[in-house]
Design brief:
Layout: H1 11-28, E1 33-37, E2 42-45, H2 47-52, E3 59-62, E4 65-68, H3 71-83, E5 89-94, E6 101-109, E7 112-122, H4 129-132, H5 134-138, H6 142-152, H7 157-164, H8 168-182, H9 187-198
Helix pairs in contact: 6-8, 7-8
Length: 200
């Protein structure tokens, strides 16, 4: 293996670097992680799973099992878990609130095929604007931080105004200021920035 500057790197050192990234990213990765039996019964879950698998997420843990808040989507989840194999597969699940979704990646454990590992990407950010450090990076005020948190959860300016008990024009003014501080020109760009920053 050769480094960018032409230095030769021993394969063992390269593996050490890989382990260092895994160690650090594993700690930073806030995506919900679960281990289920083939009947969707919960065997283990990460701390972030219990924190994030609540409304508005379509998935939740109920009575010791993973479920979708829309009973009609539970069959898709059950079929996915039952069919999981040693290679990664994925399924997109939506619940009653069609604004939100969960993309679930799953595979069976190589030494115990009765257990299935799940890793979830959710439509809602994994961390808040404050917790992720984005508020500090953009130098947002407390109110701008709250507006951006609501925006990141896909609420419209009108819905944000209702939830925060402020006028629609005030919300739009805060969003305009946030766009300026973030250096973005559209709501799509702002959404991408928030999702990228708050994903871990």
């Amino acid at each position: 293996m050769q480094g960018a500057l032409g230095r030769k790197i021993a394969p063992a050192v390269g593996r050490d670097f890989e382990l260092q990234f895994e160690k650090m990213l594993g700690a930073l990765d806030a995506r919900p992680r679960l281990v289920l039996d083939r009947d969707c019964g919960l065997v283990w879950c990460s701390d972030n799973a219990t924190r994030l698998l609540v409304p508005p997420s379509p998935l939740h843990i109920e009575n010791g099992a993973l479920a979708v808040d829309d009973p009609s989507a539970n069959a898709a989840l059950a079929d996915f878990v039952e069919a999981a194999s040693g290679s990664c597969d994925s399924v997109l699940l939506r619940g009653r609130n069609t604004r939100h979704w969960a993309m679930v990646i799953g595979w069976s454990l190589p030494d115990d095929t009765d257990l299935v590992c799940l890793l979830m990407n959710l439509s809602i950010p994994h961390r808040g604007v404050q917790d992720s450090g984005l508020a500090r990076a953009l130098r947002l005020t407390a109110t701008e931080t709250r507006v951006l948190d609501h925006f990141a959860r896909l609420y419209s300016p009108r819905e944000i105004a209702q939830q925060m008990a402020i006028s629609l024009s005030t919300v739009r003014s805060h969003l305009k200021q946030i766009h300026s501080k973030a250096g973005v020109e559209s709501a799509v760009q702002l959404t991408q920035l928030v999702r990228g920053f708050c994903a871990c």
